[in-house]
Amino acid sequence: MVNKLFFILLIIGLPLSVIGSLLDWPSVVMFIIYCLTIITLAGYIGRATESLAIVLGPRIGGLLNATFGNAVELIISIFSLKAGLIGIVLASLTGSVLGNLLLVAGLSFFIGGLKFKRQSFNVHDARHNAALLIFAVVVAFVIPEVFTQTMDDQTTMILSIGTSIILIALYFATLFFKLVTHRGIYQNNKDRENKAANQQEEPEWGKMKSIIYLGLATMAVAYVSENLVHTFEAVGEAFGWTELFIGVIIVAIVGNAAEHASAVIMAFKNKMDVAVEIAVGSTLQVAMFVAPLLVLISLFFNTFMPLVFTWQELISMITAVLLMIMISIDGESNWFDGLALLAAYFIMGIGFYLL
Length: 355
Fold this sequence. Notes:
By secondary structure, the protein is mainly alpha-helical. It has helices at residues 2-23, 27-56, 58-82, 86-115, 123-147, 153-181, 189-200, 207-229, 232-239, 243-255, 257-268, 272-297, 311-328, 335-354; strands spanning 119-120, 332-333.
């Protein structure tokens, strides 16, 4: 039923996106069409990566889901950079961190916890990810903000570029650690049972079909995202939304729709290793790869984007990281853990709306 609905929305939304942009339909109408189309395309990305997760295993599957899910946000951000919307890009990065750690993980823990009273995932991965979250968000994002208080624009640019290069290098080192040198080292009996269950489960799509769908959906997202960016200013004026709210809430939710859906589905199926890898892995990818990559890409545009967030954004991200670590560090979750994460997300959402 859900798959049919996504298909209907896609065959309606994609042509309307093209026709509306050619005929200059009202920005608010086009904003809604673009968002629904991107969410629908993200659904196909999620289904394709879910099929690949069954074939390739939960860790690689979660990484693929995070990567292609973040590809949507990366594309939107690049076009926003091109348009000079630096505030929206930084806000969307903040929203992605908050959305993944609080909304995605919260919904996953809550929905999964309603079906299973106690769900568990790899505690060694949880502890390793906790240290990376502290480094990527608390250290790498706060330090530039502290030091740039007394720096000019040129020095701020040098610090941002240096920090970005270090973050990207460490991100690839993290992948090498997880997927090569220490792959399978910290597996327990439950992990092996889940792996055996995955091998028995039939994927919805074959490997090649999944890859083709991923490629086509990502290209379609690129087209729609470019047009979506041009509606932000008019939509903000129409609804009274600030640039910060659009970035933190709207762009982040639309850009991460694939991860949102996939993580919740995995949690409902009691595949918590994949659900957590999507939520936390996506956050790490945003903080350690997407954000620094956008800093480097901005060098090719008229306006440079420093790796400097507002204090409201920083405190919100730090709070989300610490709350997620405290809840997930024991390798177990339940519906109340999810509710606490969701409550924190909505409190922050109200704050950003009123700011």
